[in-house]
Amino acid sequence: MFEFQIRKADIRQHRVIPIDAAADESGLTDGEVLVRVERFAFTANNITYATMADRLGYWQFFPPAGDDADGWGVIPVWGFACVIASRAGDIPVGDRLYGYFPPATCLIMKPVGIKPQRLIDGAAHRSQLPAAYNSYSRVAAEPGYDRAMDDERMLLWPLHITSFFLWDVLQDRQWHGARQVVIVSASSKTSIGLAYALNVDVDAPVAVGVTSASNLDFVENLGLYERTVAYDALTDIDADIPAVIVDMSGNVDVLGHLHAHLGENMRRCINVGLTHGSETGMGEGVIAERSEFFFAPSHIQKRVKEWGADDFGHRTSTFLRDATVATRDWLTLKTIDGLTGLAEVYPEVCAGRIPADQGLIVKL
């Protein structure tokens, strides 16, 4: 059994190490289950988790295994796992779960709050972490569950749920008075999900995509953006139109130039991800007082309380399925063989060199 780890101080450093874990029920305590991770998606979103881990607590989900684990961390991933041993009476062997897992071959969990379609990992070290990340779907009990959508689900749903709630919070704030939403790193899958949401909302401002010159054709051909500009042509964006910026890149130089160009018409800048690396500070020209960091789990918890679980589930699942189907014309899934395969492609993900139309699925 193995685990993929990265250096906290330099996320470009990584390793695959053997881990000690129960192979059957004899290694579990009462109430625990052992799951075998079957497959998971790996995207630039996972690099954001690593970059923001100290600030947002992502290192706490899955403490690294091994005697020399000091300084190493485990990046959470979204995927599917199967229960292979159980000392939790309500969770049978063979139950399949979808949710947050380590990039590892196995995980010991302590299910609580068990319901026919859902459970929570009640491990003590996770008790103070966002509830949305501790909840797991028992997929066999889901109405209309389609196993054929597993790869798309673990790749896109964690990204598109952020897209949905970005659209929701912008709509809730009346778009900050903007008439255009400028999306930086427009080729990212979260950006595309937001552009889809804006495109199908007849009351939404138009979406303007900012991307690299190499991705211009791809982004334009999506048909979701009113217009697309390259990073070296930011002044092509109409500064006379009030704008909200949604930034998925974390590129402070781009943001500084964009804020300066839009000036008073830059009504709000919402910082979401870090597709271009680990730049997290405020750069020259950035208008800090009109900028904020968007943390999706907080908004999700707010809406669950306001809408109720059933309405929340209906709204989000409908959007997620529709947005996923809309990707099938352009998205290519690439299967990666095991954790050693992940180690080989990991530097490319860190450097942002995975093609925009490709999704990585790690099969264990």
Automatic annotation (TrEMBL):
This is DUF2855 family protein. InterPro entries: DUF2855 (IPR021276). It comes from the Bacteria. It holds the Pfam family DUF2855.
